[in-house]
Design a protein that fits this description.
Chains A, B: Keywords: DNA-binding, Transcription, Transcription regulation. Chains A, B: It comes from Candidatus Enterococcus moelleringii. Chains A, B: It holds the Pfam family HxlR. Two copies of one chain form a homodimer. Chain A has six helices and three strands; from the N terminus they run ααβααββαα. In chain A, strands 1-3-2 form a three-stranded antiparallel β-sheet. The first copy, chain A, has 108 residues and is an alpha+beta fold. Chain A has one domain: Winged helix-like DNA-binding domain superfamily/Winged helix DNA-binding domain (Arc Repressor Mutant, subunit A, Orthogonal Bundle), CATH 1.10.10.10.
Chain lengths: 108, 108
């Protein structure tokens, strides 16, 4: 995890620096539901490249937001899930959901 | 503004498609405080390029989230502000702020 003095002073900018990209947000939206495997995520997130998915997962793992669990099966199964700290993002996604629905209603 | 059928079905993905980028989020964080001029934003948002700032503002104007007001002074003054629809994003930024503070507390 980063050290406190590596993060922006502004709390909004801190959150944006940790999860503020299209793909991180969509990955987290999925992980809120349940653990996902890499290839499942890749298939669901249309248009994401292997590199961006790998980098986004590694970065959020390093920041303590998600866990990576390797199950010693054949073939090996690797699952990504929210960490307890990651679970605390749920209110953000509730607000994104409410606003998205509200925006769509203004177009009806 | 986009038509309803141009937006993703998922409301979270809708919000992400409209404001889910580092710079759009940081611009909106500023506009929640008060109207800002282009050069003020450029100066405050360290590292943003002229093109990304212009594109982000145009895109959010086209999506009905911000207004662009030209004041016929010398030199001309142009101000960007949240539209009434843009004002409705405030709960999102409250949740980003709360989570950013919470994350920082875990590092203390």
């Amino acid at each position: 995890m980063k050290k406190l003095d590596e993060l922006p002073e502004c709390p909004v900018a801190t959150t944006v620096s940790l999860i503020g990209s299209k793909w991180k947000l969509l990955i987290l939206r999925n992980l809120i539901q349940r653990p996902w495997r890499f290839n499942e995520l890749k298939k669901d997130l249309e248009g994401i490249s292997q590199k961006v998915l790998t980098d986004s997962l590694r970065s959020m793992e390093a920041d303590g937001l998600i866990t990576r669990t390797v199950y010693p099966e054949v073939p090996i199964r690797v699952e990504y899930a929210l960490s307890p700290l990651g679970e605390s993002i749920q209110p953000i996604f509730k607000s994104l959901e409410v606003w998205g629905n509200n925006y769509k209603e203004t177009l009806m």
